[in-house]
Amino acid sequence: MKRFLFAALFAANSLIPAHAGDRAGTVLIHPGETVYAQFEVKGKKIKLTGFTKDKNEAAQVLFTLGHDAKKPAVLSLKVENKFPRDLIYKLEMRNLTLKLKANVPVSPVVAGKVAFEQFPPQAEELALDDFQLAK
What we know:
Layout lengths: L1 H11 L14 E3 L3 E10 L2 E8 L8 E7 L7 E7 L5 E9 L4 E5 L9 E6 L5 E9 L2
Antiparallel strand pairs: 1-9, 2-3, 2-4, 4-5, 5-8, 6-7, 6-9
């Protein structure tokens, strides 16, 4: 049922064409990748200073996108939050082949914990931005 809802959400937003350029502060991730993101912290505001696919011990947030071991037809995004406060972000799911995109609601990631989000296999790229720390 959950997979059907994700597919329906993706199809419902398929009329919105994907844009070529991304704003500064956007993390792009593709299936099979792990991205290490570093941020500059100023109070409860954070600013993305950089991200890399190379292992980085100084990274505060790790994103891993791959196929779910129990359900190979589903993509799973693993978000590891190393901040002492909850992480809030926005996510856009994209299909580059069809030039489609869909904004997807995500749950905040609890401080020091790992969160998982699931996506249909049609998602070829995820764009994460608007990072914030909860109060």
